[in-house]
From TrEMBL:
Superkingdom of the source species: Bacteria
Native species: Thauera aminoaromatica
One Pfam family matching this protein: Nfu_N
Protein name: Scaffold protein Nfu/NifU N-terminal domain-containing protein
One Gene Ontology molecular-function label: iron ion binding
PANTHER family: IRON-SULFUR CLUSTER SCAFFOLD PROTEIN NFU-RELATED (PTHR11178), NFU1 IRON-SULFUR CLUSTER SCAFFOLD HOMOLOG, MITOCHONDRIAL (PTHR11178:SF1)
GO terms for biological process, alphabetical: iron-sulfur cluster assembly
UniProt domain Scaffold protein Nfu/NifU N-terminal: residue ranges: 5-91
UniProt feature coiled coil, ranges: none
SUPFAM superfamilies according to UniProt: Fe-S cluster assembly (FSCA) domain-like (SSF117916), Hypothetical protein SAV1430 (SSF110836)
Assigned protein family: Belongs to the NifU family.
Amino acid sequence: MPNVTAVMSTPNPLANKFMLDAPLYTGAPRHFSAGVAVVGDTLGESLLAVPGVVEIYCTGGFITITRDPGTPWSAIEPAVTELIEGHKARRVIGIANPAGPGGAAGAAIGAGEAVAEEPVEVEADDAELLMRINQILDEHIRPFLDQDGGGLDVVKLKEFTLTVRYKGACGGCPSSSTGTLFAINNLLQNYVDDRLLVEPIY
């Protein structure tokens, strides 16, 4: 079973990062919000049921919990920690199942199905541009957002306007619409194409 080794604050005062000593998830990060049905993820469903929890962002090494402003961390942290540490490692979603009797290589094992990534809306002619954008984001932006307990998804690319969605601690962070956004804009304009404009949605 994984253990919570530390609970760290993030630049978002409503989000804390629960550090793990063993991975709970593999593959793409997972994101769950209150009011949206959780399919095939028992831990995500349980965490969202904790009073005051409004958003969850999960990666291999940590889980970021975003709280309601009216609920103190003292009422959330013990329940979240207990749920994480009580979650069976075998229920991890997205672990590849080696080829063998009764199973094909790469099949997901665990309590639920792997969560599909949201498709990016992009014109066929812009596919190469999108690849270059994601390469720069992977190298220069996403690792730093990860350190702060958050992430960034590309939602759409149309006529050099790049629509992105922040996740985890980055979703409600004040700098997501100021300093961080300016840095992403400048980086992509300098390294990819100076006509690019980044627009976040929340």
